[in-house]
Amino acid sequence: MAVTTSPVQKVGNNHYKTSVTTNADGSLSSTTFRTGPKGDNPVEVSSVTGATATSPGTRTYATGATAAEKAAFSNPNSPERKAYSQQVQAAKPFGDSPTATQKTQLEKAGGGSGNTATNPDAEKSSETKTDAAKQEALNKEFKAGDKQGTRTQYEDLVYPLDLAASHQDIVKFSILKYVPSLSEKGRQSDGVSTSGRIVTLKDGKPIVKGSERLGTITLPIPSGISDGNSARWQEDSLNELLESAAATAKGFFEGGVEGAGAALEKDKKDKLDDPSVTRQAVSGLLLNAATSSNVQSRAYGAVNNNNLEVLFNGPGLRSFSFTFMFYPRSEPEAIRVRKIIRAFKQSMSVKRSANSLLLKAPHTFAISYLTPGDNGQMKIHPYLNKFKECALTNCNVDYTPDGTYMTYGGAEKSMTSYRMTLSFAELEPIFDDEYGNDGDASVGY
């Protein structure tokens, strides 16, 4: 019996790999494990035995499988099942050049229909070619990623080195791998969607559900912090003729012809009490339209009521700015400051696809003001604003904030001081329901 294993694949917040065994009778058996990011600490989740070209086999679940995993692997349309199907193919139990019958067996083992070819001996049938092309595209997408040299991990950086996070308030920045809202992961409905982009705490660090944290930066809360919530309202006018037309249309949509007739009758009663005034209003509108001048006011000393009103026009997005001063007091602290500046700059940089044909979004940030709780654990500060997931739009560093170029001696040659200004913009607006019913226990957003 030959055993092959697929690469580790991330699904939601978990990592999985699948081992495929080719049995003596030609059938396939597979076992899926939940692992660490590098395939370590495997925990058996599910097994499939007796997969052939005509049968997908029988699936059973190990004691290590959670209820959510059992439900996910039982659903042929779930991300977990799709990943399992890809992993069975990626394990290549039949090598790089399986026959048409073996391809059908692989698809069956992965949970597909097995109809990759109408004739098992038709190696070059159009259907087999199409399935092979789809699988090849999936494999390329799985393996391609970003251009070589793109940074994927950052340290957990703290400044100053002796910052007593358990005894003072801090601001913590988590660097996140950006997830587009319309991507497969961004649209998941199984609890790991990025919808809302709400920042919560996990292991005492800010995170957005469904995202991957690449590193953190912890700093003292600077001076000058503020927030500004906004909603877009603007002036709008509606003259009497348009108002009448709108009322009639509304009546028709809500009550058909009878509704439109009732609206017209009401409008007639409201506006024709004084026919002379109505004639002046209508003629004034026509005169103004014909001459592109305010003839109505010249002729009658009056203008039509434009029903001026301020109307809601949509939500606003918030932006934030932080200014941090760094004064390295030792060589290790100078190195730490350099790493922090580098982390912010590099994480906000545009990424390139593996073939440089596409430019990909920079990493984003989950930000939280934290304060020590009664149990010594850090919690979100109830008297400062919360954040949604943010993009770092500007990072400005002043290397001579004191007005004089000055460096330390020694091997590092660090500047004696730095001023770093960061500008962030939230990715989504704030909505009323997102404040939650916490009895006003925090400032909220």
Write a compact overview of the structure shown:
This protein is α+β, with helices and mostly antiparallel strands and 445 residues long. 27% of the residues lie in helices and 27% in strands. Strands 1, 2, 3, 4, 5 and 6 form a 6-stranded antiparallel beta sheet that branches. A 5-stranded mixed beta sheet has the order 7-11-8-17-18, with helices on one face. Strands 14-20-19 form a 3-stranded antiparallel beta sheet, with helices on one face.
Taken in chain order, the helices and strands follow as EEEEEEHHHHEEEEEEHHHEEHEEEEEE
Low-confidence stretches: 113-127, 189-193
Global Rg:
32 Å
| Biggest β-sheet description | 6 strands, antiparallel
Could you estimate the helical fraction of the residues in percent? 25-40%
Shape category:
flat
**Count of helical stretches:** 8
Description:
The protein is of the alpha+beta class and 445 residues long. It folds into three domains: 2-144, no CATH class; 156-230 and 317-435, no CATH class; 232-314, no CATH class. The chain is 27% helix and 27% strand. The strands form six sheets. Strands 1, 2, 3, 4, 5 and 6 form a six-stranded antiparallel sheet that branches. Helix 1 (67-74) crosses helix 2. The protein is flat, with a radius of gyration of 32 Å. 23% of the residues are buried.
